[in-house]
Amino acid sequence: MMQRRGVTALILMMGLLMQADALPRVSEPRLRRTRYIHQGHDVILMCLAKGIQIFRFTWMKYGQRMHVSTGHFGRLTIENFTLRDQGHYTCRVDDDEGYDVSPAVSLVLAQIDDQWNVAVRIKMTHDMSPMSLTCDHPPFCVPTGKYDWYRIEGETPSQVKTSNNIMIDNNGTLHFAFAEKKDSGIYRCGIHNTVLGVTKLGSEVNVTVQAKPNVRRFINLNGGLRPRLMSYSAETSVVLGKRSQVGMHFQRDARPYSYLDTYWSKHQSGS
User: Among 1, 187, 253, 254, which one has the highest count of C-beta atoms within 10 angstroms of its own C-beta?
Assistant: First the structure.
């Protein structure tokens, strides 16, 4: 009797495995992802599946059926892509044994606003003093734009090169650890859309670096240059039991224009 039960259980298990193998499985798209699309471009979404029967492919937007086809693959074509076509798309594959649904493919319209109306600002500082230029009210940009800064010389803007003395933080602020008289000039923040290949300039600042520095502000008692805080970053949320860091970026005179990174955590600090 025990032997029969064992054989019956084995047959039942093999039947379940065969049934599981017969179920359709989406092989493409396999991962959730986002695609940024140019205005007016055509988009083709492909859906592939594995199984032993003929499939029925259904492309859906937010769960609403858009296109149905049968065969070895399902293709959805969106012509002249616009903002109304933006959304989350999934593919459902059906056969007589069951169905499977793909991860979502998010189609997003790539864009950047044309207008960037910010009043020109005046910035005055002393030679060898720290200086920061904020990128005010940048235009709406999808995907998130890359910040650069440009110096306007004549009619040709030249990109500001980052160095040990110059950096741009994640908010687009341009930091000078020690401004020099040669840094005087007109600066504009730039937002670069990597998908569209377009850069917009704005948030103009007219900078004047005066030749006479306030010596006490940057000389310490040992005669060296004081460290300069250029930027800092902090986590806004933490997970209990895991280390959380706050990073601050300095420049000091231990080596000419070198960086010092200092971090704090709940139970540990160091530099």
Answer: 187
Helix, strand, coil percentages in the chain from 3-state DSSP, rounded to 5: 10, 50, 40
* Dist. CA 172–CA 170, nearest whole Å: 5
Pairwise CA distance, residues 219 & 209, whole Å = 18
Tell me how far apart the alpha carbons of residues 6 and 8 are, in angstroms, rounded to a whole number: 5
Kindly report, residue by residue over 198-216, the tens digit of the pLDDT.
Answer: 999 999 999 999 986 555 5
Contact in structure between 79 and 45 (CB atoms under 8 Å):
no
122, 172 in Cβ contact below 8 A?
no
Of 51-55, 80-84, 152-156, 179-183, the poorest mean pLDDT is in 51-55
Cα–Cα nearest to 126, from 185, 204, 208: 208
Q: Which of 111, 209, 203, 229 is nearest to 150 (CA)?
A: 203
Residues 242-261 pLDDT 10s: 454 444 454 544 333 444 44
Say which residue the tokens 């005179």 belong to. 253
Q: For the chain, report the end-to-end CA distance as a whole number of angstroms.
A: 73
Does residue 259 contact residue 232 with C-beta atoms inside 8 Å? no
Q: Which helix (H) or strand (E) holds 209?
A: strand 198-210
Q: How far is CA 104 from CA 25, 78, 87, 162, 223, in A?
A: 15, 16, 9, 39, 61
Domains along the chain with CATH numbers: 26-109 (2.60.40.10), 112-215 (2.60.40.10), 216-270 (no CATH)
Distance CA(213)–CA(130), nearest Å, equals: 11
Cα 89 to its chain centre, rounded Å, is 21
Question: What phi and psi, each to the nearest 5 degrees, are found at residue 72?
Answer: -95, -10
